Amino acid sequence: MSCCLGVMFVAFLVGLGEGRRWDSRKVERKIFITWNDLRASDGGILRENGGRNNGSKIIVVDQNGKGDVRTIQGAVDLVPPYNYERVKILILPGIYREKVHIPASKPYISLIGDEDMPSKTVISWHDKASDRAADGVLGTTRTATLQVFADYFCATGITVENTVVARPGGEGMQAVAVNINGDRAVFYKCRFLGSQDTLLDDIGVHYFYQCYIQGMVDFICGNARSLYQGCVINSVGPGAIAAQHRNSPSENTGYSFVDCRITGLGKTLLGRAWGEFSRVVFAKCDISDVILPSGWSDWNILSRQKIPE
């Protein structure tokens, strides 16, 4: 991460969680998001430094059985509750057809795929809001392929998708790929694929750097305070990109998109005012003609037509 802002933001989000002061000039990215902990030998996997590196615990996920576990949830389950050290879950390439839940009691987890080819490591599921579980209708939040309620979460080099395709005007088609509710999370070179409500960026302070986010209807939504820097935002049909849910002027939440690129098919809006005081900023972004001239929607509620003073 060569960008000074990115390094400082990562130091703030992750370093504070290590229980000591950090000099942002000395933060090493490899502590959290590289493959330096492993090397391949004769088709096997060898851990460097006895499976630990820079104070981090290493868990390897491999569908072919050459790691510690075969599933990502299995790796999360190995992390003890109320853990206070960085745990790096290294995921070997493959399509992992599972839902992954990281509870609030398991902070400091990193999910690490292939930094250069995030499309090779995929977590995939297919729930939608109108689907039923044993205790009733799922609703939006429980559709998530990846649910993160823990603080100090990191991810890099992975794709998370919800394969449900929203029908125009369809009811109960919300289908979340990632639901992030923990505080101080970082996503670097990740891909989020879906249709409606792809990324439920709901609670906490989060940083998305050089990520790819795809959807159609309100596909970045929630009430977090997040910075999206150098990301590609791809719309696959008519709808809206951001639906931010700030309901009070006293809430310190909102989405900032900086140096992002907006691409896609069909005509869409930059955002819809889901909350009474929704706050979304696009700065220094490359915005293609996929965006409708009107730019924004007030959700058909006139009181939400506000601009900064």
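(the above was protein one; protein two follows)
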Amino acid sequence: MTDFWQDLETGPNPPEVIYAVIECLKGERNKYEYEKDIPGVVLDRVLHSNVHYPSDYGFIPRSYYDDGDPFDVMVLVEDQTFPGCVIEARPVALMRMDDDGEQDDKV
């Protein structure tokens, strides 16, 4: 099994073109997370409100944010993908986010 964290490069031509490993799907309430120890995508929880993901959501392999986790990435897609799908993406913006008082930006 491929370890999306260690075996994949950051992208074919970073920072212009990166890889995004999808964890959560656009329009869904299931919160999946990639577990490096398994390695695999596991269901973390289900969001129990009307909140859902506005885009596919995941991480950039071999990238590190201030919290030690990989950089989060939101990917604008038209058609549904699946958890664990690897997509080539072109970063267009950095969205500044605050998560309970801690900065948690998204590409």
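Reviewer note on protein two: The chain has a mean pLDDT of 89.
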